[in-house]
Prior knowledge:
By secondary structure, the protein is mainly alpha-helical.
Amino acid sequence: MSSMSKIAGLNGPGRQKSAEKTDAILKGAMGEFLAHGYAATSMERVAAAAGVSKATVYSHFQDKQGLFMTLVRRLAEEKYRAVFNPQDSQFLQGEPSAVLQSLAHKMLDNAMGDKQLQSFMRLILGESGRFPELAQPYVENLAKPVIELLSQYLASRGELQLSDPEATARIFIGSLVYFVILQEVLHGKKNLPLERDRLINSLIELITNPKH
């Protein structure tokens, strides 16, 4: 077989069909995990929801844990790209108050408008006690890179006079994540409401007003 034929085979109908089945399996798995939880979801359930055979599910994913972790990893990567667009080289350029304002609004817009993400966060939080390894793809593919990138930016802004840029980045990101969890995931907005702008503005004020 010529090299061109091999390339055509790698990008031909077979590869496309496999990708379509992978997407169908992940979509079916998302629905099953959200409806029944991790422990009660079986590969048989996922196969039925995806409209494929159980053998097909196993041929794409070794086991249920691998399927769940792939689902978390894909979701985390999608959310990371939604906040930190790889094509937007200017995103972390500019005055800290403007950069932090933009980042905070992007994070909250992305999380608070996505009911499926909120349901999935409940699932991860609920299952992480019994299955701590299931939360690792979320930490590795979303929380860690966001904190690292923001830490680097804050460290580069000497005028802020931050003694610990990494801890500051964790406080900033953690406050926004907790806001989403408390207001949306745990339905606290009825009993403990808070306008998002109050939170964002207070966080920015704490960070951008250097101590003298």
